[in-house]
Amino acid sequence: MVHDPAQADPEKLAQLEAVQRWFKDDWRRIEPKLRTSIVEGISVFLSLFDDNSKVKRVFCPKKECYDPQKNANNQFGKPLARFTSCVLQSGVELPFRAIKTNIADSLNVVIHVERRPGRRYISEVLLINRYDPDADLFDYGAVFLAKQDKS
Prior knowledge:
The chain is an alpha+beta fold. It has helices at residues 10-26, 32-51, 53-59, 81-89, 96-106; strands spanning 109-116, 119-132, 137-145.
């Protein structure tokens, strides 16, 4: 279920606001050449997802996975389910609900980066509010949605 950001967990919303302040107040002060180097390093890291489909499936589920209307029957998978699978396969003996609750408590923001020919861009940012064990659903809200190209 997606909620209005005004209804989000105040602590997680404060963390997102801190990131936004960092971007506006600190990131822009960094010398452009250094910013370019940082972005290139991140791009190299993200390229690992292009070359290894298993890594990509774990960390980069399809955007439709997070859309409650498009993914009502879970045809694109369950958001963040791969993280749960990683923990279960690691041999850690925790109850399933505890794993999912810990994931929701540990992740504050999910940033969806799309790749287009010659570039990457942030297409949406989701704020993870909590995990509802009774419904077996993560509660999250979109805090940024990029405009869709009219191709």
